[in-house]
Amino acid sequence: MVSPSTAFAQTSGTVRPDVPVQANTTTAQQAGTSQDQATAPSEADNSPSPAGEATTGDIIVTGLRSSLQRNLDIKRTATGVVDAISAEDIGKFPDSNVAASLQRLPGVSIQRSGARGEPTGITVRGFGGDFNTTLYDGRRISTATGGRQIDFSTVGSDFIGGISVLKTPDVSLASSSIGATVDIQFPKPFDHPGFRAAVSASGSLQDRAGHVVPTIGALVSDTFADDTLGILSSFIYTRRDTDTNRVFVSGWPGNGFAPCQLQGSTATVCAPTNDTTAAPSQVRSLTGWFPQQYGAEQQRVQDERVDGRIALQWHPSNEVMVTLDNNFSRQTLNTDVYGFGVWFSQEALRNVKQDANGTAISFTQAGSPTDFVTAHNRQILQTNQTGLNVKWDVNEKLTVEADGAYAKSWLNPGGVIGSTNGDIGYGGRLGTNLGFDITGDSNKAFPTISNFGPAGDASRWADPTVIGSHVTVNQTQENTDELKQFRGVLTWKEENLTLKAGGQYVDDSFRLLNRSTFTNNFWQAYSGYGAPSGQGGGVSPLPSSLYQGSISLNNFIPGFAGSLPPSVLIYSPQAYQNYLTSLGNPQAQTVPGFNYTGGVNGFTGQFTEAVDPSSILAVREKTWSLFFSAAVEAQVAEMPLHLAFGLRNENTRLSATGQGRQPTSITRSTSDPTLLTIGFSDTQPVSSGSSYSYLLPSLDMRLVVTDKLQLRFDASRTLTRPGLNLLNPVLGIGVGQRVGALSGSGGNPNLKPYLADNFDVAAEWYYQRNSYLAVDFFLKNVSNFIVGGVTRQTVNGVVDPTTGQPASFAISAQVNGPDATVRGVEIAWQQVFGDSGFGFQANATLVNTNKPYDATNISQTGFAVTGLANSANFVGFYDKNGFQIRTALNWRDEYLAGFGQNQNTGAYGAEPTFVNQSFQIDLTSSYDVTKDFSVFGEILNLNNNKQSTHGRFKNQLLDVFDYGRRFTLGARYRF
């Protein structure tokens, strides 16, 4: 593990070309000394100096080039395969987002939030999300997101000291990541003895949001009492506002079409059925896919984050160091959404034209309703971690370290309503014979709809006089994750031998529940669109005071083909719900437009949420680990050989408790015939437990062939545990459902971890100072893959009133599945052109698998390795005389993100989600006005890259997000 003191070493002083910065943890004795002494190797260190460099004299290098040299030295001297990013100086991390920095490393790619364009997660060598473990100073961090990965947009980068990405495991740290272990290191007082302070302030502007929002931060550090006590404190407030345009298809379910539905059919009657004894023209015998829902929306996101940190250090003697620290973060996301949507049912489609793959690329649907949707979404993610570390150099050879931490995360604490929704529109006798056409692939076109508007009158598309109330959905996810951990390590160092032994205990408790108006069926209280649509429920017209204007959909996604209706309406979901509430209590009086026949029992006027019993989940996971490692330095044919062997045993016990219930009835709404209501039995607690134990060995060899060239071989076994949210022991069926889209989900508390046997063979050529070329071939054999399949099932014998047959639910569930092999090569090249100030970093990763996705496989248990994509990055820079400019080009090929779509009701299993190829250019620059004061600027997404996704085939668009460019201007001062 690389310490923060290592990351800060030489930030503003001299860099001796013959002294590489070390990549081992700073000892208690070193922690109170100057940085040169703490990081320089002993005279016995036989690490060669870079070829062609003089070993006398000092070279003054600061800023980006200094940071790159530290990163190179960490990579070069690390026992395993490690890439690193160091702060250029205190309070000067290379990027405004941690994940954005990580994507510059070979083998690392990022996932972006479509609505914000912010990097939220990483993929390492094709393994994303839960396959990567993120640590704060060597400790696991809790996360209430529902999985094990953290959201990197919640990590402020302003005062980070450095990041290490361990692609091969350090058994004394963790072996629970098949992708990589990411260790984020924060500064501490004794990293820079004496008084230090840094402040930064900036303003950012997203081109569509149109206003400047601030980021401010401050860090103060001091040591006193003869450098035996130290304190460091930092605070950062960050705000990002983003207006994002989105066109979407909620899902492409697969099922059969009947010949009578096809373009050119002469059938006078068309009633698609699965009954194979019916007339051939009526049997759904043709494999196909259709869009479940199509629409467009603008999302206006306000992202506020507060980060705070305090670290106290006590250095009572040269042998003892005590560190107490606390990390706090709170991210608040407020999103206002304005859009429209149209719903399709496969059996209602006519004039269907399919392409060669079976995708419905053109069709009409009679009576199509149109919905205008608004929502206010609010998400709060808060995390607090407190840790205590004691390090004692017992003697010159033995060091004892004890580390304990407590962390807790909350998703939406304090009674937050996660989403407040208002859905209005027209349908029934105003439903249109809507046309739908696909005009191109998902990376360049979105679908076109035609014959829209009330009864096909496009001029009245958004006419308030015919628009009425529809469904009203409020829902909130509430999670907590509580993490307790302790680690103890004994380190024994001889001249050419280092031994480590110790143990670790981790207790992780995760709780989840969901509240919504689906649970109590209040979402259907005023469904039906009102009198102009000719249906029994709903209120129309709505007060004109609700409408606050509109958003034009003209040129909505620049550069994409396809056409949209003219506009979407702007109105407040809170004001809309307040208006419906003001109509009175339908239980105490007759309220026109209330859905008295839709099973909306107990509604008294307030759209209150109710807890969904099937969402209640409590998981507790306890893991005990023992580890041992030995590192030896030897000679082979007069070539230095660094050899390390490690062994880690992990024993895990898991318990999961949920609330189960069975569906007992299904009723159809008379006011809106697309809506269904499920009745249930009483709930009962359901508990389950499991345990497993694994031995995880590792071997690392580094052979220094010449003073320029070194070779590596690494072998290890690692594991990744299933996401905590996958361990629910009950089957969940939602109360509110739609015709033709019955669905449910089930967890599996008996899931076992993924296991991987990993191999690396690498060659690294350090041909001059601050420059190198490296090639790394890697292979991962992974077993126990967790497969998320969808099967069609009847549940408790309930009957679907729309068919008169036992209801068929699309049930999503997870099981441990097949094995797979992932293999690839990473190529990295860093070149600095002498003292000219110019240089570049370039890397490429080529990866493949023996289990690629097969789009022609329509079985319900299809399987493929997710996340795999070729990628390449290029960073060109100039850094001299206080002026720095850097251009970053990041490319990632198309990849399979996962299985499952927003609407996942098809007959062919879980439909896939692919992310299209992306290419983004970022530009950053800074100028040191004085030694301590600098100004900086940044342009993100200079080329206005869009993010788009598709389903099984390239023309099945799922999402396209246009999140625009972001401009930042700011200043830093340190003293």
TrEMBL record:
InterPro entries in the cross-refs: Beta-barrel_TonB, Beta-barrel_TonB_sf, Plug_dom, Plug_dom_sf, TonB_rcpt_bac
Pfam families, sorted: Plug, TonB_dep_Rec_b-barrel
Gene Ontology CC: cell outer membrane
Localisation: Cell outer membrane
Region annotated Disordered, chain positions: 1-56
Principal place of residence: membrane
Protein name as annotated: TonB-dependent receptor
